[in-house]
Amino acid sequence: MQSPYSHTKATLALAKASFRSIMRSPSAVVFTLAFPLIFILVFGFLGGGGTKLDIAIAPQSDLQNPIITSLEKMPIIRLTKNDNLSNINKSLVKGNYDALITVEKNKNGVPAYFTIVKYTSASLDKGNILKSILNELSYKLNTQNIKPTVTEIKSSTVNGRLYRTIDFILPGQLGFSLLSTGVFGTAFVFFSLRQNLVIKRFFATPVKRSSIVLGEGIARIGFALLGALFIILIGHFCFNFTLVNGFTTVVNMLILATMGVIVFMGFGFVVSGIAKSESTIPPIANMITLPQFLLSGTFFSIDAFPTWLQPISRALPLTYLNDAMRKIAFEGAGLWEVKHQMLIILIWGIVIYSVAVKTFKWE
Amino acid sequence: MKNSNVIISVKNLVKNYDDFKAVQGLSFDVYENEIFGLLGPNGAGKTTTLEIIETLRQKTAGEVTVDGFSIDHDSSAIKRIIGVQLQAAGYYPNLNLVELLELFSGLYGVEVNPMQMLEKVNLQDKAKAKYKALSGGQKQRFSIATTLINSPKIIFLDEPTTGLDPQARRNLWDLITEIRSNGTTIVITTHYMDEAEQLCDRVAFVERGQIIALDTPDKLIDNLIASGFERKKEVKKANLEDVFINLTGKEWRED
Ligand SMILES: Nc1ncnc2c1ncn2[C@@H]1O[C@H](COP(=O)(O)OP(=O)(O)OP(=O)(O)O)[C@@H](O)[C@H]1O
Ligand SMILES: [Mg+2]
Question: For the whole model, what pTM was predicted?
Answer without folding.
Answer: 0.79
